[in-house]
């Protein structure tokens, strides 16, 4: 009889620590577990309608119907994605006029939304920039910018963006930091609806940055995850893209249709890069393909088919533009309503920054103790930096949220 020694496997995973995700992920879990009927989630990072629900836009429904009727197969798409989608996304981002003249020089690749655009773009940069080239990101910014830079092997550095005292863009700080950045640096800009501050640059500030970009040979990487959410107008929100490209600056652009089409579960986006000629474009696309192949092989098709149908069908496109306008207007109305409600309650603080900011996000300026009290006493959930998504407010909860904000801040300095 053989005698076997029983070996116990020591699991490789037994010492793995808990990975901590972005704070908004924790908020979702806490919010879901809360049974209080008046609970409010201000940590949502997709649009909510006036009933507090995610949107299924009419334009998206119409496009889905058209896609369904085409009875398309589910074969692999090309690695770079669906061309009709890529071209329509580029046209939307750069504007028709620029696209007609220069579209043939723009390398495009369908990606997994805004996150995928940053990942693919940063991987490409890491492969070809001079070693040591830094990528400058605003402080604060979406945490995935520095995280992805690190994963992609790029060194990221912050430039000043927000002044917590004035609660506005710290433009002189921003300009100073980029002035002393090494020539040829990569600079990430939020094209509109800055997350998390809600503070955007104005046309004059973009003009100054354009001059600096040309002077220093900066490579601008525009993250345009919220086109339409600042002004309700696609062209207006892309003004920086238009200004830089018209001036001949070779930019990189990440676009997402998660928010403005409500397609977050479909991971629909586009990365594009302005090249000098068609051969350069071909080479860049080939490199994008090589990298995308090892990241996700090829992108999912359904969201791209929906988005492409919307963008290429004049009637549905017009309907979508109106729907985006409506979403942007609702956010604006909530901003003004919230500020007014706090004023009407006699708040000793100046909340006017909330109505002056743009897009879904705002940094309220409230501190840790007030955030804790809002969660524990009033069942209102927000980010631990005091950031809120204005889209979480609606006609039903706005007065309650204002009352709670007033109660937790009336005896404190902000
Ligand atoms: C500024 C910014 N960039 C990128 C992303 C990621 O976008 P997506 O959800 O489309 O991947 C977000 C998402 O919230 C964002 O706010």
From TrEMBL:
Similarity-based family: Belongs to the class-I pyridoxal-phosphate-dependent aminotransferase family.
Molecular function via GO: L-aspartate:2-oxoglutarate aminotransferase activity; pyridoxal phosphate binding
InterPro entries, alphabetized: Aminotransferase_I/II_large, Asp_trans
Domain Aminotransferase class I/classII large: start-end pairs: 38-404
Organism classification: Eukaryota, Sar, Alveolata, Ciliophora, Intramacronucleata
Subunit annotation: Homodimer.
Entries under NCBIfam families matching the protein: PRK09257.1
GO biological process terms on file: amino acid metabolic process
Protein name: Aminotransferase class I/classII large domain-containing protein
Signal peptide: none
Cellular component, GO annotation: mitochondrion
């Amino acid at each position: 009889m053989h005698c076997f020694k029983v070996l116990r496997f020591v699991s490789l995973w037994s010492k793995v620590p808990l990975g901590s995700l972005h704070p908004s992920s924790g908020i979702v879990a806490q919010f879901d577990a809360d049974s209080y009927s008046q609970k409010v989630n201000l940590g949502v990072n997709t649009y909510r309608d006036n009933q507090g629900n995610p949107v299924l836009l009419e334009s998206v429904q119409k496009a889905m119907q058209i896609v369904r009727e085409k009875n398309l197969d589910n074969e692999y798409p090309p690695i770079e994605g669906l061309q009709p989608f890529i071209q329509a996304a580029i046209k939307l981002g750069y504007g028709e006029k620029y696209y007609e003249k220069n579209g043939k020089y723009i390398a495009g690749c369908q990606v997994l939304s805004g996150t995928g655009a940053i990942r693919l773009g940063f991987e490409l940069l890491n492969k070809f920039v001079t070693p040591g080239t830094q990528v400058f990101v605003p402080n604060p910014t979406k945490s995935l910018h520095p995280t992805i830079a690190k994963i992609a092997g790029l060194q990221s550095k912050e430039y000043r963006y927000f002044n917590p005292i004035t609660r506005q863009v710290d433009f002189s700080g921003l300009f100073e930091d980029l002035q002393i950045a090494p020539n040829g640096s990569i600079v990430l800009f939020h094209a509109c609806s800055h997350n998390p501050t809600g503070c955007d640059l104005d046309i004059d500030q973009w003009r100054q940055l354009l001059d600096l970009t040309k002077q220093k040979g900066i490579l601008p990487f525009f993250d345009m995850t919220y086109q339409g959410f600042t002004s309700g107008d696609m062209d207006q929100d892309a003004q920086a893209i238009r200004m830089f490209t018209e001036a001949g600056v070779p930019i990189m652009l990440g676009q997402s249709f998660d928010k403005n089409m409500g397609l977050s579960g479909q991971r629909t986006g586009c990365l594009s890069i302005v090249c000098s000629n068609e051969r350069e474009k071909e080479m860049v696309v080939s490199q994008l393909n090589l990298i995308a192949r090892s990241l996700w092989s090829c992108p999912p098709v359904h969201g791209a088919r929906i988005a492409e149908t919307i963008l290429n069908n004049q009637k549905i496109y017009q309907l979508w533009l109106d729907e985006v306008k409506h979403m942007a207007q609702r956010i604006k109305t909530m901003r003004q309503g919230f500020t007014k409600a706090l004023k009407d309650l006699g708040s000793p603080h100046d909340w006017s920054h909330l109505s002056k900011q743009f897009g879904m996000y705002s940094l309220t300026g409230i501190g840790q103790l007030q955030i804790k009290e809002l969660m524990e006493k009033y069942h209102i959930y927000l980010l631990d930096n005091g950031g809120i998504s204005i889209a979480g407010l609606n006609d039903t909860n706005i007065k309650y949220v204002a009352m709670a904000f007033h109660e937790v801040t009336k005896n404190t300095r902000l």
